[in-house]
Design brief:
This protein is mainly alpha-helical and 159 residues long. 57% of the residues lie in helices and 12% in strands. It is flat, with a radius of gyration of 20 Å.
Length: 159
C-alpha cells in the first residue's frame, strides 16, 4: 500500500496532463485505465521500493526542470540561427567524458543531449560520448558539461 498510492497518483496526474481533457466521461475512463494499470502491476508484484524509487523523486523533478530549461534555451538558439540570413553553422564532432558512473546515467545524459536542439549523441563508449553539434556555441555547451552537471551521476537501473 505504501508504494501503490504514489504510483496511482503519479499515473493519474500524468494521464491528465498528457490527455488535456476534463470531461467527466474521459476522466472516468482515465481513472479506470490507471486503476487497471496499478492492479496489473500489483498482481505482477512490480510495486515496491525498487520499482518506485521515492528517494529519487525530488532529484529527478529538479533534473526535469533543468532539462526543460536547457531545451528551451537551445530551441531559441536554433530559431535564431534559422532566421539569420547567413546562418553561422559550423557542424562538428565533439568527444566528451562524463562524470556519470553508471550505464543508465550515460544513457540519460546521451538522451538529454539529443533532446536539446543543435546537438545529437551518436555513440557512447564507456564514459565517453561522441556528439555532433550544429554550431560552435552548442559544441561549447557540450564540452562545458552543462547537461552533465544536471544528470545525477549515480543513477542505477532497477530490476
Amino acid at each position: 500500500m505504501k508504494f501503490r498510492f504514489p504510483l496511482t497518483l503519479t499515473l493519474a496526474i500524468l494521464w491528465w496532463l498528457l490527455s488535456g481533457y476534463a470531461d467527466a466521461l474521459l476522466l472516468a475512463l482515465g481513472a479506470c485505465s490507471v486503476a487497471a494499470t496499478v492492479s496489473l502491476a500489483r498482481r505482477m508484484d512490480r510495486i515496491d521500493q525498487a520499482s518506485h524509487p521515492l528517494h529519487l523523486s525530488w532529484r529527478l523533478l529538479g533534473f526535469g526542470w533543468q532539462l526543460l530549461r536547457e531545451i528551451v534555451l537551445a530551441n531559441a538558439q536554433v530559431v535564431a540561427i534559422v532566421l539569420t540570413p547567413k546562418p553561422p553553422i559550423q557542424p562538428q564532432w565533439v568527444r566528451v567524458r562524463s562524470r556519470s558512473t553508471s550505464p543508465l546515467g550515460m544513457a540519460v545524459l546521451g538522451n538529454a543531449i539529443t533532446l536539446t536542439p543543435g546537438t545529437i549523441t551518436v555513440a557512447i563508449h564507456g564514459d565517453e560520448l561522441l556528439v555532433h553539434a550544429l554550431t560552435d556555441r552548442s559544441a561549447a555547451g557540450v564540452i562545458a558539461g552543462d547537461l552533465d552537471r544536471i544528470v545525477p551521476p549515480d543513477l542505477e537501473a532497477v530490476r
